[in-house]
Amino acid sequence: MSTLKGACIIGQSGGPTSVINASAYGCIKTALENENITKVYGALNGIKGVLNDNLIDMGMEDPAELEHMKYTPSSALGSCRYKLKDAEVDDTDYFRILEIFKKYDVRYFFYNGGNDSMDTCNKISKFMLKHNYECRVMGIPKTIDNDLAGTDHCPGYASAAKYIATSLMEIYHDARVYDTGMITVVEIMGRNAGWLTAAASLACYKGCGPDLIYLPEVSFNTNDFIEKVKKIYAENGQCIVAVSEGIHNRMGRLISDTGKKDSFGHPQLGGLASLLAKKIEKATGAKVRAIELSLLQRCAAHCASQTDIDESFAAGKAAVDYATAGITDKMVGFKRKKSKKGYKCEIELFDLSDVANAEKKVPKSWMNATKDGMNEKYIAYALPLIQGETQLTKEDGLPRFVHLKKVKAQ
Amino acid sequence: MSTLKGACIIGQSGGPTSVINASAYGCIKTALENENITKVYGALNGIKGVLNDNLIDMGMEDPAELEHMKYTPSSALGSCRYKLKDAEVDDTDYFRILEIFKKYDVRYFFYNGGNDSMDTCNKISKFMLKHNYECRVMGIPKTIDNDLAGTDHCPGYASAAKYIATSLMEIYHDARVYDTGMITVVEIMGRNAGWLTAAASLACYKGCGPDLIYLPEVSFNTNDFIEKVKKIYAENGQCIVAVSEGIHNRMGRLISDTGKKDSFGHPQLGGLASLLAKKIEKATGAKVRAIELSLLQRCAAHCASQTDIDESFAAGKAAVDYATAGITDKMVGFKRKKSKKGYKCEIELFDLSDVANAEKKVPKSWMNATKDGMNEKYIAYALPLIQGETQLTKEDGLPRFVHLKKVKAQ
User: Which of A107, A339, B19, B213 has the fewest CB atoms below 10 angstroms from its CB?
Assistant: First the structure.
């Protein structure tokens, strides 16, 4: 083991999740307790906090207050969607980052995010290696989308899945209450990967889920879809559909393409449920309700999986433990262990180069024969992840979320 | 006390809530245990179940399974939105109801619903009195809208309020995560009464609520609204708005009027958040997100208030206890007792004639001076109601909802 003494920076990036702060807390708490880490800085709004010299001193926070991070949704340090240019094209940002690292004697950099964040992390790691600045760089995954390569699953996914399955069970009960018939279309996030939408099948497993589930892993035919809805509605007077925002036709064109793009160049999605609802209404004359789970599916900490919270914390902790033990240029991930006692999850490390920008899709073999639902393989995969109820403290009957002082780094 | 022996019918009507089944269970369990009640029937889909002779025998259900009703959202017996004509205009339905009551020797009728259901309940009660058919009729209130006259609050309101406040706290954390600015508009149910939207202020009380809250009790000026949003956004780079679906202009015209009407002749609402979001986007150029809490706010049993569940159960129980003790033609409601030990709630009875079709609005004196938020009077009113976390059983990390056998009445 090679000892490296210095400060660390932790940053958060990309879309919020219910448990990204549990990872950050795992990282911060472990770093504060590690004798080789001299200072623990939080970068406000991810890499932008480094570029703008906008760091806070995590050591100035009250440790008891900091504990509430474990159960607070969204990114307590703020997030960003800032794409670093390739260093070969423009290395301005990289030299600025190096300048800040030198200024604060930063020898550890922990970056907590999804695909794009792992890309950022990878680029910084490679630049520092190339410029012989000794800094151990570790990626801590988070994404409700569950689409990071390598790892069995991503912190954040299970809590979103639990919320989606729970909400769909509740919607099922609500939507069937009248005998006058209703069709319900529920839009779920996930972009190109259907992991989140697949979670709707957990409600089916409990006997009260949607009739049809559409993932972006399979191309979507609107006419076929409407025929299926019509048939189910004619038989039951009810039909519930769960549909991924990212479904597309055979040509790859998104069914709901608003034309708008985000700063990474990804299309901005949304409005799909309303669009499909209008088509169904026209085709069936039935009452159709469109529901967008919207951002609640990524921030509903009150319905988080305690398994997810604990694993997220463990991922943050492992990043510090491995880095201080000499590891660098890796993303922390999970490996599922087959155990007679049931589900067990271990930490596994992945090369940043391998995970940056790679996308893991839902295996088609986990879908049913008609590709409008999931099978038992997905249930076996997802069920262990959503176990355990959050230990979130309640005050006045409402969540007690963290309040950080955010003292500027000196 | 006059003893009356016979069967009872319990029916549920109107929009679902998280706790209407807790009331039904309170009623069913108490009725099953009462020696004067010979049979307990559930009317499927409310009064339509009576009209269609579609009754189930609640005595055939497994008592242990029936207990799960207490924590199952939506109407387990099915609901309806069926308006009885005035008996003077057309008494066909009433004579049919009388026929069914006689067929099953029904001497107790319990109807579990909101304003329109209390109207149904009142009409049946008056008809039976007029035709000298001895039947004790009791209304058991439910409505997330909290707009029933007389009672301090309505079963169902507190759970919806808790969900709305919790979700807004989570949305607050999510919406502020980027430093690039965002405006969020959250649309909340409640029709003409602002009680549900007022619950957003509980999130403000916890330090993470919306900047602006608009109730239908005050007329809405779109230009003033946009100016306020602009100012807050310019100052903070963020703005969160909670808005009631029922807001209207000075002339009483709904800001979002789709032209569609439901079977009671009420306008069908929805789509307001998107509409306002578009106007704000145009006026500010900011990124604006529209969120409809949609029907999750009325069926999110996983986030129900245990206080609400217990009170709902107590209301159902009281209806049976009072009816078998000789009371009829009343709605069960709540009276808030001032107690040194804090909040205390007692059962109070109200004349059905007084509550049918009456609407209770939020007092304007509970709003802030600028009428875009609530004050401490509302907080003092609402806070005790949302206390306590649901004791809902979880299985496989997901809610365990009731499964009824629904054995047809003989």
Answer: A339
